[in-house]
Predict the structure of Glutamine-dependent NAD(+) synthetase.
Amino acid sequence: MKLALAQFNFTVGDIAGNAAKLLDAAQAAHAAGAALLLTPEMSICGYPAEDLVCRRDFTAACAAAVESLARQAPAELALIVGYPERTAAGVYNAAALLRGGRIEQVYRKHHLPNHSVFDEQRVFCRGDDACVFECAGIRFGINICGDIWEPGPATGAMEAGADWLLVLNASPYHLSKERDRIAVARARQIETRLPMVYANLVGGQDELVFDGASFVFDADGEVAVQCPAWREGLFYLELDADGCSGPRHELPGEEAAVYEALVLAVRDYVGKNGFRGVHLGLSGGIDSALTLAIAADAVGAERVHAVMMPSDYTAGISVEDSREIVERLGVRYAEIAIGPIVEAFTGQLAGEFAGLASDTTEENLQARARGTLLMALSNKFGTLVLTTGNKSEMGTGYATLYGDMAGGFAVLKDVAKTRVYRLANYRNSVSPVIPQRIIDRPPSAELRPDQTDQDSLPPYEVLDAILAAYVERDLPAREIVAQGHDAAVVKKVIRMVDLAEYKRRQSPPGPRITPRNFGKDRRYPITSKYRPEGELP
């Protein structure tokens, strides 16, 4: 038999648009001779819909869309769609089998993930029944995403007589996630001896980005089909009781995958939220240069407006390099000096600051002048301001609240500084858009004379290793020191991370590309007396 797999990009809440997309796919699949069409998790409403599924009007609209789709889809086609099903017992993360003009069966997700970025137990009830149906002489069982990450539901499908397992997924990307999925799928295949079709979502949704990369496991536990990452498509597979044939796409390497994740996240955040384009502040440094390249690749150079806002401390080469990168990328560009604005601020504050020495207050006024200008441009032109701070800066609070943190989407929020350099080199390997001098120069905020980042922070190779241990792996301070780090440096970094929580809580969302980001993943109290660095001498 021929099976169609819809690796699609759906929009949360666009129930009519998602249903129309599914109907088009059903008609195309039927015309191509497919007997079955498998779609991702929550394909009717998009994923994650979060507390929208608590609204009765929302779930009623989803139910109506499923019923309408059942009536309109080709009657001979078995179409499987995901949606939030409301019953008298509660709301379920469900998959409906549509065939013959009706909803033939419904499967309800068993294992509701409640960790990292997931909190499904907050809004969904747990199902416990298997769902098996026959199509073209083959018996198929259904699971939904988290079901295959634990034993049980796959075995239930096997015991109910399934020959194949169909898995609807909305599995968000992070580094190493593709390897994790394969390992989990192989564990279920060993458990059940069932071949498996794994259909995954693609697209950006707030902080999450979904990479697609759907695949098929044959009865021997080998990947028989590999769909591409980061690309929508309707892919056709030929199945029999044991085997499968279909496309075999090569998945990108690590830096290419991270770059694609960031590009897709920006494209969908801008597009799905209806912004006309983006504005960003260009400093002549590597973070803003990389952000600019990502933005141009995401939405097109004609929709990107870069603004250089020099101060008295801005080096001439920063302006030169900014002009060069915008010329290479072909984006719109403006220069707005902030000197007069900062002078006005300091003049108005002179009475209050009388007798006090200059400090970071005056530095932050420069960053806040830039943030105000960018937000004014955003308001006037209906654009999204992209912030350019990286994870190393967000982790330590090396950023100005209401200054360089002002904006709507933080592109590099989950990208450590050391990876920023790797991504810049990767992007230049595709085409040389970032001037080499930007990559080679010591990073600086340029808010005072001769300033470099290392005046305030450890070398980034050291800092990023400590942050990965403390933020992403929750290692105690003593274990981080045991890895070879200086105790005083570890103590300083941990203190900076903890004190900066109030800043991060007010920062814009940004795409998650590590197993633990600042935002949906890592949730720490702002007010806390616990000091984990206190265990160090």
